[in-house]
C-alpha cells in the first residue's frame, strides 16, 4: 500500500514539473529539475542539500558501475 502511495505522489510531482519545464525557455540543469521535483514533493531540502544528495547518488552509481559485472544477480537491483 505504501509503495503505491509513494509511486502516485512521485508520478504527480514529475508530471507537474514536466508541465512547468515545458513553459520555460531556458535549458535547465539536472540539478534544477531535481530541485523542482523536490519542491513539488515538499520535503524542504535547500539547494545545498540537494547538491549533496545528487553527488552522493552519483558516487553510488559510479561505485556500482566499477564493481558490478554480469555475474551479479539481478536481485541486487530490486
What does this structure look like?
The chain has 78 residues and is mainly α. Helix content is 69%, strand content 0%. The protein contains 3 helices and no strands. The chain has helices at 2-22, 30-41, 47-67. Helix 1 (2-22) crosses helix 2 (30-41) and helix 2 (30-41) packs across helix 3. The chain is globular. The relative contact order is 0.09.
List the helices and strands and how they pair.
Layout: H1 2-22, H2 30-41, H3 47-67
Labels describing this entry:
78 residues, single chain, mainly alpha, 3 helices, globular
> With helices defined by DSSP (H or I, 4 residues minimum), what is the helix count?
3
The Rg value, from CA coordinates, equals 16 Å
Per the principal axes of the C-alpha atoms, what is the gross shape?
globular
Strand tally is 0
Quick description:
The protein has helices spanning 2-22, 30-41, 47-67. With 78 residues, the chain is mostly helical. The longest helix has 21 residues, at 2-22.
